[in-house]
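Appendix C reproduces, verbatim, an entry submitted by the partner laboratory led by Prof. M.T., so that reviewers can inspect both the input and the predicted structure.
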Amino acid sequence: MLLREWNALRNRFGRILTLILYSEAVGYVAIAALALLLVYAFGVRHLRFFMVPSSSMEPTLQVGDYVAVLAEKQYHRGDIVVVRSPYEGGYIIKRIAGVGGDIIEVRDGVLLLNGRYASEPYIPELMKYTLSPPIQVPANELFLLGDNRNHSFDSSVDLLTYPVGSVVGKARFIYYPYSRWGYVHSYPLVNSLGQ
């Protein structure tokens, strides 16, 4: 008895669901919702897609990873961003190590942020270089470093800071290869005083 009632109920809801899913009105609503989502993603958030060209961000990002990048209103230390490169008009992907007003130094293999040790669990090894004297990041500029510090052409090499306006967006998602599919996590980069 219970099985017969269950089958009758399932058939009734199945027919209703089929009518809803295959109705013309639902199709139009779905198309409109998809169009609004695409306008928001590409028009408002400036969704862009990039391939990671080098090993400078390993182990966080691998050579050949494809990432989705979204524009943000504000960028913070620890964010992984794509920036317009001043060299050859291309793009680079790096982690923000310093923002306007920060004092950056590398000594004894570690990053010092405003004179204090900054924990960076994502880097594969200690830095084999020094950055001294310390560099003060100008207002509205960013100091960028690759996670693979000893094999990255970044602000530690050319001592260049990048205007905040040159940031295309924050890396949000690895969409290919499928084996690495997932979110790109930022790490809140602060010094030992929590600054």
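The chain has two domains: 2-44, 48-183. Additional entries are available on request from the coordinating office.
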